[in-house]
Amino acid sequence: MAQKIARLHIAREPGHLYFVKDSAVFATPIKGGKGGRKKVGTFKHEHDPAYMYFLDADGDVARAMRGGRKKKAAKAPRAAKAVKAPKAAKKAAKKASKRAAKSTKDERARARATLNAVIRDMRGLNKRLR
User: Which residues contact 52 (CB under 8 A, 6 or more apart)?
Assistant: First the structure.
């Protein structure tokens, strides 16, 4: 929020830019018009570098805190990034992992089949023994 510093009630003219410098208000043409800056008003105030001074909508001098970002605390250095593997190597690794998964599935299926065969044989023996 801005604080009013001096009530000057300066009437703005179209085509002019107004700025505050060294306890004075200046007007200058916006687009390369003839003539340089001209002093429009003065005020007494000690300049504080933490604030930005400007001419507000009422034609008075106002100030607001400068809005720069606060610096963040320095982060710890990051570890070096791992180098990416080429696409062909990634593809080969993926294919190999699929093959390994498939072979374990096949081994499980074979084990199940042999187990089921053993169970069938045992049932058959039980029937014969009765």
Answer: 63, 64, 65, 66
Give me the half-sphere count of Cα atoms (radius 13 Å) on the Cβ side of residue 120.
Answer: 6
Backbone angles phi, psi at 114, to 5 degrees: -65, -40
Burial 109-126 (b: 16+ CB within 10 A, else e): eeeeeeeeeeeeeeeeee
Whole-number Å distance between alpha carbons of 21 and 10? 15
Question: What token pair was written down for 60?
Answer: 């008075």
Q: What is the pLDDT of residues 39-60, one digit of tens each?
A: 999 999 888 888 999 999 999 9
- In angstroms, the Cα distances linking 63 to 20, 57, 66, 111 are 10, 13, 9, 83
Asked if 49 and 67 touch (Cβ cutoff 8 Å), the reply is: no
Q: Write the CA distances from 56 to 3, 31, 53, 64, 116, integer angstroms.
A: 10, 21, 9, 11, 90
Q: What is the pTM of this model?
A: 0.48
Dihedral angle over CA of 29, 33, 35, 36, nearest 10: 40
DSSP assignments along 94-107, one per residue: HHHHHHHHHHHHHH
